[in-house]
Every structure is written in structure tokens, then in C-alpha cells.
Amino acid sequence: MNATPAPLHTEPAEKTKIGRRVVVAASLREAGTLIGLIALMIFFASQSPIFLTERNLINILQQSSINACIAIGMTLVIISGGIDLSVGAVAALTGVITADLMFRGVPVPLAMLAGTALGIGCGVVNGLLISRAKLQPFIATLGTMSVFRALALIYTGGNPILSVPPDYRAFFTGTVGPLPMSVVIVAVMAVL
After folding, report:
1. Is residue 140 within 8 Å of 130, Cβ to Cβ?
2. What's the 3-state SS for the chain?
3. Contact 84, 74 (CB under 8 A)
4. What distance in Å separates the CA atoms of residue 119 and residue 192, rounded to the nearest whole number?
5. Which residues contact 91 (CB under 8 A, 6 or more apart)?
6. In the prediction, which pLDDT does 31 show?
7. Distance CA 130, CA 132 (A)
């Protein structure tokens, strides 16, 4: 006899087609941001001859480095199933306190440590509200966002702090090869 063995597992053709469609749709959804970015780059490159120049691309990286730094931390929060709406307000509060300490003559490393400690303190407040007071992360961080933003505004009186030491400016406006220091810092944080 010339019989072929029956397959161990068979699926109806319709179910297989639906499964393939789901996989393709999921792949397109996951790649949507990248596709959108490529489309925007093509559009802007067609509108301006300097868009894809090295100088402009480095400028874009530098301008987005602060948001990228915050996004790295937010990624960890979102992966763990949480949300933190107060990150921008914490960045503002710690930034103005750190800058003002430097303006008042506190050594740069000490002012940066104080700003870091303040940021950690803000995170502890959020963590305690969520873990001990059993508030939802969205509600807790929405409230602390308003508080931290108000504290930054009260501290500065609504005025910018412009005078920071030249060595602090030199560090963050310096370069490593062709890349600005802020881009290098974000790249190191992303790797870590």
C-alpha cells in the first residue's frame, strides 16, 4: 500500500487565514511608530535640503535628549504596569532648585546631588501614596504633579534662573566627538 500518514495537527483553512491577518495587523501596529517616523523624515527631507544634514540631525538629538532621559525612566514605570504623570513637574522642580543652588554659590557636584536627592524624595512621596495610601498611580501622580509644579513656580516666583556656573554649562554643552554631551548621557542611560 502506498498510504501517506495523516498529519498530526490540522487546522481549517479559514482559521489559518484569520491567524495570519492577526499577525500582520499586530506587526503593522508595532511598526506604526517607525513607519510614521520614516514618513515624516521623507516629507521633511523633501521640503528642506538641510533636514538630513549631520548638523540638523545632531540638533534634533540634542533638543530631544531631555525628553528621552525622562522617557527612559517612564518606560520602566509603564513596563511594571504603572503610570507617573508627575515626571515633568519633578524635572522642573529639581532643575530650578539645582540651578538656584549653583547660582547661590553651592559647588556644582553638591548642587547636583541635592537636586538628585530632591528627585528621589519626590519619587518616594509618589511611591508611598501608591503603596501605603493605596491610591491609584494615575490619581496619586496627577495630584503630586500639581504640587511639584506649584512648588517650582512658588520657589522661582515665576522668573527664570539664568546664571549657572560656566563649568556646569561647559559640561552639558560640551561634546564627545561630534555628539553633544546630553546625547551621550542619554545613550549611556539607555544602555544601562
Report:
1. yes
2. CCCCCCCCCCCCHHHHHHHHHHHHHHHHHHHHHHHHHHHHHHHHHHHCCCCCCHHHHHHHHHHCHHHHHHHHHHHHHHHCCCCCCCHHHHHHHHHHHHHHHHHCCCCHHHHHHHHHHHHHHHHHHHHHHHHCCCCCHHHHHHHHHHHHHHHHHHHHCCCCCCCCCHHHHHHHHCEECCEEHHHHHHHHHHHC
3. yes
4. 19
5. 66, 70, 119
6. 83
7. 6
Amino acid type, 168: Y
- Percent of the chain exceeding pLDDT 90 equals 65
- pLDDT tens per residue, range 98-128: 999 999 999 999 999 999 999 999 999 999 9
| Cα 127 off chain centre by | 19
Q: How far apart are CA 142 and CA 126, in angstroms?
A: 10
At residue 120, φ and ψ (nearest 5 deg) are -65, -40
Q: At which residue does the C-alpha cell 554631551 appear?
A: 181
Residue where the block lists cell 513656580: 153
Amino acid letter, residue 79: I
Whether the full predicted model's pTM is greater than 0.85, yes or no, is: no
- Beta-carbon contacts of residue 115 (< 8 Å; ≥ 6 apart): 94, 95, 97, 98, 101
What distance in Å separates the CA atoms of residue 12 and residue 19, rounded to the nearest whole number? 11
What b/e sequence results for 76-96 when a residue is b if at least 16 CB atoms lie within 10 Å of its CB, and e otherwise?
A: ebeeeebbbbbbebbbbbbbb
